[in-house]
Amino acid sequence: MWTTAQAPLEREMAALLGVPYDRVMLAAFIPLAYTLGTDFRPAPRVPLDQVLHRNHW
């Protein structure tokens, strides 16, 4: 999801995600990756349900 232009829609995005707009500023939603060398393999990860929040704050 490309979300670098959220500023004009910040209030609407906060409402959609259930973020308290009057207390929290949505600074950025930026997908990131960091690699070391070219030996790619799955990284150790915590269970998705512990880190993913969908449609709520």
TrEMBL record:
Gene3D superfamilies to which the protein is assigned, alphabetical: NADH Oxidase
What name is this protein filed under? Nitroreductase domain-containing protein
Q: Which top-rank group of organisms is this from? A: Bacteria
Per the UniProt record, the source organism is Frankia alni (strain DSM 45986 / CECT 9034 / ACN14a)
Tell me which InterPro entries the record gives. Nitroreductase-like
* A GO MF label: oxidoreductase activity
